[in-house]
Write a structure and sequence with these properties.
Helices cover about 20% and strands about 35% of the residues. The protein is of the alpha/beta class and about 260 residues long.
């Protein structure tokens, strides 16, 4: 499905946690409905202004009934600081949906499913659990945060068990999320988060003989696979994360 560029209006913009924002916009293209794991290129500054590139942000939630599209993102640099200044009623340019995301229908038929996220890597997983729930599957959720979890209240009604690990030990298990994940209890593990975390999850899944799908994050320029700026190494050669991913079988990208 080719990506579509569209100017959209901000419906709401809220602070979820320090440096974490939830941006809701009206997406008028129901014929270009996104699914879990896909992303949009966001831009709210002129083409001639810095930063040069739009910002790729994953779909947090899509509500077809209301046409509301949500992005949960972390304010990190110049581009996201400009996005964070948007107010209800403002407009921005969205290009998407792009990429190959999670196949929720296939995942729902795979048996017992675990969804694993770390920090802002939980952002695309909300739409994933929504789609799994719509397909009749309640996955178990495993999340890892540095200190204080955020956004999990939306996941709880859609999941079976919800497990939390924090680096500080403030909430849940004191340690990494891999310390509480037992992939041998599952038929499929779906994962998004920092690359070291995903590699560790993939390694545990590989040792247990359990299929693991991971959603990669790379800096992107075009978002459609033309510039090759987000190339990753796979067992099948170099591939663009934006075009061939961002969701891959962990064995293909990590060799587990």
């Amino acid at each position: 499905m080719p990506a579509t560029a569209c100017e959209v209006k901000v419906l709401a913009h809220t602070v979820v946690a320090p440096n974490i924002r939830l941006l809701a916009v009206a997406w008028p293209r129901a014929d270009k409905a996104p699914h879990a794991g896909q992303f949009f290129m966001l831009r709210c500054w002129p083409d001639t202004a810095a930063p040069l590139l739009s910002r790729p942000i994953s779909v947090h939630s899509w509500d077809a009934a209301t046409g509301t599209l949500e992005f949960l993102y972390e304010v990190r640099g110049q581009g996201t600081r400009l996005l964070a200044a948007l107010l209800p009623g403002d407009t921005l340019l969205l290009t998407g949906p792009s990429g190959n995301g999670f196949d929720a229908a296939a995942a729902a038929s795979a048996g017992k499913v675990a969804v694993v996220g770390g920090g802002i890597g939980t952002a695309p997983l909300y739409q994933l659990v929504k789609e799994l729930a719509a397909a009749g599957k309640k996955p178990d959720l495993y999340t890892g945060f540095r200190d204080e979890p955020y956004g999990l209240e939306r996941f709880t009604p859609l999941c079976g068990r919800v497990h939390v690990a924090t680096d500080s030990g403030k909430v849940g298990y004191h340690g990494l999320v891999t310390g509480i994940l037992h992939p041998e209890e599952y038929d499929l593990v779906l994962c998004c988060g920092p690359e070291p975390m995903m590699k560790a999850v993939a390694a545990k899944c590989g040792a247990a003989g359990v299929k693991c799908l991971v959603s990669l994050e790379k800096k992107m320029a075009c978002g459609v696979g033309a510039c090759l700026g987000c190339t990753c190494h796979t067992t099948e050669g170099a591939k663009s994360v934006c075009k061939h991913g961002p969701v891959f079988d962990s064995k293909e990208v990590f060799g587990q």
